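Pilot study result, target chain (158 residues):
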Amino acid sequence: MYRPYSREYYRDLVCRIGERIPDAGIGADVKVGFPGETDDDFRETYELIRSVPLTYLHIFPYSSRPGTVAAALPNQIPEHVSRFRAGSLRDLIAQKNEAFRQSLIGKEIELLTLEEGSAISTNFIRVRVPAATPLNRWIRMPVQGLTKDGLETSFGVS
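Predicted structure:
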């Protein structure tokens, strides 16, 4: 999509962040199915994401918008192909995100309490906390386990 940086630059940048801040929650936006994207292009994108310490993705299947430069490009990708590619990346990032959250079990994390029984960690993970935890406060708590899409503190509700 005409980005001013190379795949190697991006890989190096994300890996350096992961090395320097191992518990960083690193996210990216990914558009799939842009006109001209070949199967090989998508495989390279998939492998890049698999190989770097990304933990979140916002995945957007390309959709043509009349009057845009992209709408006039050749080799438009069928919608079902874009959706399949987006699903493949969602499956991949779900596995990576779970492994990332699993790596936090037993660690003490910093989090901001949001509402009764809920907080968000400094690396953007939803965390269950005791209902009596004061709201709108930065606190530190040990992680006991995983929820469907977040973490549970050792004092969390089961």
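One observation from the pilot: The longest strand covers residues 138-146. A full batch analysis is planned for the follow-on phase.
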